C-alpha cells in the first residue's frame, strides 16, 4: 500500500516518541498544598486524604524539606487556627498560624517559594468565606478583610498570595492594598474560575472549613457554566491578577483550555482533594495502577493548557518526571 502519511513513524520507539512530544512537564510547575494546624504538635495523618498530613508549627519545616528532596520548589499554605470567630480575625493576626508558618519556612529555606491561600472559611466560626449579613456573605465588607489577610501574609514574608474566596472585586482590593503598603512586587494568583464542586469534600475535612449552614453556591461558580469562567478570568486579569486559576482540574479541562487560550497570563489548575481521594480509593481497591493514573491525570491538565499544577501528588510527580516516566 502506498501511503504518504504514516503517523506511526513518529511513535515507533521510546526515543522518537519523546522527541516529538507536544506537552512537556517540569517539576518547577508543581505546587504542593501544606496544611498547618496551630493546635497540633508533630503531624497527624489526614484520614480523608491518604498519604497527606496536617503539620504543627514544629514540623512544617519537615513538610518543606520533603518537597525539596523530591524536587518540588513551591507550596501553598492552608491554616487551621486555634481561634475562630464570626469575622475570622485570626486570619490577619501577625502571630496567626500562617504568618508563623511563613516565617519559619523562610528562615529555614529562604529560596523555597511560599504561596498562601487567602480566604476566610478556615477562620470563621460559620465556615463561610467572608463576613455575613444574615445568612449571606457580604461581598463588599469581605473585601477589606481579605485585603488585611493578604497584607499580613506579605508582611510575614510570603512570595505570592492566592485569594480563593470568589468575592467580586477582591483582586482589585488586594492589589491596591499591597501596592499602597509597599508590596507591589508580590504576585496574585487568583482562583478565578472556582466552581461550586462536589470534589472538595476531603479538603473541607482536612482544613476544618465546612460551612455550618447552607452552601457556597452563592459565590462559587455553577458547574453548568462555561462562558462565565471567561468573564471571571477577564475581570481578574483586568483587576491585576498575575496568574489565573481553574478549580477543580479534571472535570474542567475544557475550561482550562478555553481560558488558557483567551488570556495571555499563566494558567494554574488545582487538582483538588476529591480527585486525589478517588485515585487513592480505586488504587486501594486494586482497580487501577495508581502511578500511571497519577501521571496521566497530571499530563491531561498540562495538555489542556495549564502552566502550573497544584496537586497533592506534587512530590510523586516530581520524582516521576526525574525518572523520565512523565515529562
TrEMBL record:
Catalyzed reactions: 2 5-aminolevulinate = porphobilinogen + 2 H2O + H(+)
Similarity annotation: Belongs to the ALAD family.
Binding-site residues, 5-aminolevulinate 2: 273, 312
GO molecular function, one term: porphobilinogen synthase activity
Subunit structure: Homooctamer.
Protein name in the entry: Delta-aminolevulinic acid dehydratase
EC number: 4.2.1.24
Pathway: Porphyrin-containing compound metabolism; protoporphyrin-IX biosynthesis; coproporphyrinogen-III from 5-aminolevulinate: step 1/4
Residues that bind 5-aminolevulinate 1: 204, 216
Keyword hit for Lyase: yes
Coiled-coil intervals, chain numbering: none
Top-rank EC class of the record's enzyme: lyase
Gene: hemB
Binding positions (Mg(2+)): 232
A UniProt-annotated Pfam family: ALAD
The UniProt record lists the keyword Zinc: yes
A cellular-component GO term for this protein: cytosol
Superkingdom, natural source: Bacteria
Amino acid at each position: 500500500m502506498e501511503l504518504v502519511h504514516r503517523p506511526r513513524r513518529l511513535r515507533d520507539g521510546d526515543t522518537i516518541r519523546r522527541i516529538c512530544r507536544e506537552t512537556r512537564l517540569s517539576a518547577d510547575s508543581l505546587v504542593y498544598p501544606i496544611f498547618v494546624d496551630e493546635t497540633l504538635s508533630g503531624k497527624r495523618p489526614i484520614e480523608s486524604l491518604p498519604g497527606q498530613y496536617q503539620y504543627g508549627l514544629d514540623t512544617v519545616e519537615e513538610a518543606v524539606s520533603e518537597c525539596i528532596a523530591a524536587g518540588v520548589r513551591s507550596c501553598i499554605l492552608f491554616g487551621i487556627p486555634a481561634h475562630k470567630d464570626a469575622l475570622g480575625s485570626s486570619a490577619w493576626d501577625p502571630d496567626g498560624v500562617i504568618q508563623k508558618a511563613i516565617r519559619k519556612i523562610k528562615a529555614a529555606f529562604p529560596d523555597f517559594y511560599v504561596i498562601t491561600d487567602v480566604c476566610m472559611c478556615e477562620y470563621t466560626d460559620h465556615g463561610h468565606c467572608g463576613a455575613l449579613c444574615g445568612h449571606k456573605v457580604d461581598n463588599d465588607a469581605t473585601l477589606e478583610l481579605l485585603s488585611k489577610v493578604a497584607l499580613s501574609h506579605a508582611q510575614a514574608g510570603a512570595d505570592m498570595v492566592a485569594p480563593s474566596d470568589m468575592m467580586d472585586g477582591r483582586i482589585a482590593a488586594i492589589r491596591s492594598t499591597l501596592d499602597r503598603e509597599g508590596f507591589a512586587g508580590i504576585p496574585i494568583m487568583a482562583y478565578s474560575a472556582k466552581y461550586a464542586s462536589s470534589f472538595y469534600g476531603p479538603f473541607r475535612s482536612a482544613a476544618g472549613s465546612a460551612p455550618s449552614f447552607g452552601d457556597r453556591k452563592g459565590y462559587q461558580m455553577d458547574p453548568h457554566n462555561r462562558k462565565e469562567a471567561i468573564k471571571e478570568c477577564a475581570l481578574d486579569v483586568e483587576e491585576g491578577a498575575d496568574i489565573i486559576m481553574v478549580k477543580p482540574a479534571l472535570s474542567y479541562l475544557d475550561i482550562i483550555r478555553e481560558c488558557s487560550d483567551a488570556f495571555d497570563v499563566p494558567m494554574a489548575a488545582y487538582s483538588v482533594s476529591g480527585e486525589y481521594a478517588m485515585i487513592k480509593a480505586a488504587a486501594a481497591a486494586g482497580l487501577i495502577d495508581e502511578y500511571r493514573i497519577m501521571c496521566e491525570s497530571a499530563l491531561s491538565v498540562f495538555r489542556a493548557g495549564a502552566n502550573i499544577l497544584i496537586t497533592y501528588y506534587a512530590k510523586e510527580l516530581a520524582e516521576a518526571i526525574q525518572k523520565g516516566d512523565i515529562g
